[in-house]
């Protein structure tokens, strides 16, 4: 065997060994990332001002995650443009797990309202990790509306097309989409009345100036419990724990209709699997904790953890549905 051949063979074997070590190192990356993560504080970006429901849940999650993982989770409020400012900040951040988005259903509505005017994709630019809470939409009526069941409400709407008013917190709000989705599903023509926020909707409902509203449970729970408003049905697969006496739409004859508002954690696309799995575990633990249940119930929410592919499929499905409705209504945000 020549000396040159032996040298070539030696170099080849050395190269194979280095390649094997490199592949092993690559295979170990997720595990190492999970073991070492987090090594510094984590930024949790929220697209709403401090004090609102999304912010309150985000801060409760941040407190839990910080204690569980040994590093502070710092809430960074970036309100503006219907959560686009916050989503853009996270979409453009390094995919290392140190910048996360604490979002809500509004995230899925961005393509519908801004149709190509944003620099990110709500589906492809993010990796949805886990939801931690949900707030069901509930159909409520005030004293000016004689219906006391969902069937009576639909009968009223059919007998007076375009006359039954349905107030929401604004054009393009979650309540607006929920209203249009139900009206289309049941062949109803409702008179949508947009307000600037949920509070004036509740005021006019109680005063009899407005017939109905597809509202988040937390925004009307005190009035329903006091008897000032009547809840006809909950737009959720199961009854709300805070209003167990109110039927779901399916139970009340409204068909397979659901309009839950979710709250959850999303990361930039490309986050290492090990880091994602660590965060998902913490999110599930938070949703199962007694402290989270107490905090969420005070906001009219239920704990819920839907993670990974199930959460991603939900975001994609919602984004497509909302975009279709927006096109049909020619609905665009300013």
TrEMBL record:
Coiled-coil ranges from the UniProt annotation: none
Family as reported in the entry's similarity comment: Belongs to the UPF0065 (bug) family.
PANTHER family: BLR1237 PROTEIN, TRICARBOXYLATE-BINDING PROTEIN
Gene3D superfamilies to which the protein is assigned, alphabetical: Bordetella uptake gene, domain 1 (3.40.190.150), Periplasmic binding protein-like II (3.40.190.10)
Originating organism: Delftia acidovorans (strain DSM 14801 / SPH-1)
Protein name stated in the entry: Tripartite tricarboxylate transporter substrate binding protein
Secretion signal, residue range per the UniProt entry: 1-33
The entry's keywords: Signal
């Amino acid at each position: 065997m020549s000396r040159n051949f032996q040298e070539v063979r030696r170099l080849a074997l050395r190269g194979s060994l280095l390649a094997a070590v490199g592949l092993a190192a690559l295979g170990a990356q997720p595990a190492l990332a999970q073991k070492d993560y987090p090594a510094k504080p984590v930024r949790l970006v929220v697209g709403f001002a401090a004090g609102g429901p999304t912010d309150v849940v985000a801060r409760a999650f941040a407190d839990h995650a910080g204690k569980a993982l040994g590093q502070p989770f710092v809430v960074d409020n970036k309100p503006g443009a219907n959560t686009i400012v916050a989503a853009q900040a996270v979409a453009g951040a390094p995919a290392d797990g140190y910048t996360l988005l604490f979002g809500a259903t509004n995230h899925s509505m961005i393509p519908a309202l801004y149709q190509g005017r944003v620099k990110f994709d709500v589906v492809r630019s993010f990796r949805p990790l886990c939801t931690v809470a949900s707030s069901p939409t509930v159909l409520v009526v005030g004293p000016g509306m004689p219906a006391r069941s969902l069937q009576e409400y639909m009968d009223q709407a059919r007998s007076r097309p375009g006359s039954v008013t349905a107030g929401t917190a604004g054009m393009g709000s979650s309540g607006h989409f929920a209203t249009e989705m139900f009206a289309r599903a049941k062949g109803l023509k409702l008179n949508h009345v947009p307000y600037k926020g949920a509070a004036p909707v509740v005021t006019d409902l109680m005063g009899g100036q407005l017939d109905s509203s597809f509202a988040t449970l937390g925004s009307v729970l005190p009035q329903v419990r006091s008897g000032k408003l009547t809840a006809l049905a909950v737009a959720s697969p199961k009854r709300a724990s805070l209003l167990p006496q109110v039927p779901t739409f399916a139970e009340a004859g409204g068909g397979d209709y659901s309009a839950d508002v979710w709250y959850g954690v999303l990361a930039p696309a490309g986050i290492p699997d090990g880091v994602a799995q660590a965060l998902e575990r913490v999110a599930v633990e938070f949703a199962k904790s007694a402290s989270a249940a107490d905090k969420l119930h005070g906001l009219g929410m239920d704990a819920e953890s839907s993670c990974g592919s199930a959460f991603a499929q939900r975001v994609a499905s919602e984004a497509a549905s909302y975009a279709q409705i927006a096109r049909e209504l020619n609905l665009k945000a300013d």
